[in-house]
Specification:
Strand content: 5-15%
Shape: globular
Strand order of the largest sheet: 1-3-6-9-2-10
Largest sheet: 6 strands, mixed
CATH architecture of the largest domain: 3-Layer(aba) Sandwich
Order of helices and strands: EHEHEHEEHEHEEEHHEHEHHEHHHHHH
CATH class of the largest domain: Alpha Beta
Oligomer: single chain
Amino acid sequence: MAEIVKLERQQNDIDTLIVGDSPAIRNLKQMILRIARSDVSVMITGPSGSGKEMVARAIHCNSQRNTESLVALNCGAIPAELIESELFGHEKGSFTGASSRRIGRFEEAHKGTLFLDEIGDMRFDMQVKLLRVLEDAKIHRIGSNSAIPVNVRIISATHQNIDAAISQNRFREDLYFRLGVIPICVPSLASRVEDVPLLIAHFQKGTKKSQAAAFDAGAIARLLEHSWPGNVRELRNFVDRANVLFGGATIGRRHTEQLLNLSARGPATVADDIPASTIFDFDAAPLCSEAETARAAAPQTHEPARIADPLLHAADQKAAPINLREMLEGMELERIHAALLSADGVISEAARLLTLKRTTLIEKMRKYGVEKLC
């Protein structure tokens, strides 16, 4: 099925799609607003995870075509033998498995915008057919001799170095000139780290306060130091991870470092081999409530700020004895449940979030009867 995006008018505000206020992002927004006024083809480049699809949506939203469909196709995700049918459609019986007529993405995007993501991965012979369609503004369904006129604006995107692909004969230069009438480059997150706090606030918008992690000055400082190889996508994963593991709490530099380490790529390890720096101590500072954070930040004249600890906080109440085992089990169950929800019930992913062995997590789920909740 085509990904047809019909955006509401309130989403036309470019700031809802392109988040940030750094010089690089302000320049990008100005480019988008100027580009959107015309119908010329645009090629978006930039590293993976930098937000190229959001730029394409922003261009479409601010164009005169915004009442029509934005149809997206990831050229790198479609098998080579199916890409022609995906783009141009086919007639019934035109090939084995073609049990009915199907219209392609060009027809679906008629009068709207067609976003060809990862265009650099398109097969070379398909590039020739795409070029012909762009020149003639007509498509032929597979198995049909009838030409179908299409009125489509093309926005393409790639993370590849197109100049290198052209020099290596992997991408047609004439197609590049057709697709890249206006080239636009999306900056990496590392080149605009000052936008990190704004992006965090954007990703947490709509999240309940009790389910959202907060970050102190040390945490933000560590995030600004990070190189963000995965760009905005990596930051979003980091925020989701923090919300699952530390929802309702304020975390500092130490836990931020651990959360960042969880996304480090490398060979799979068992829990016993995980470095101590990546094993979370949920009861240790800097986990604290907002009130405790304020008290810790206040100047002290006679004694140092207290270490925020949920167990010590409970002990201060002195109204009743504390059942330590019950309290710890409640915390453990809450974290397991949150991790499973975040992982859509995939046990291996939840175990990774919790830095546990998969078998250990299964044992704990059986202990608490959590299998009935997933």
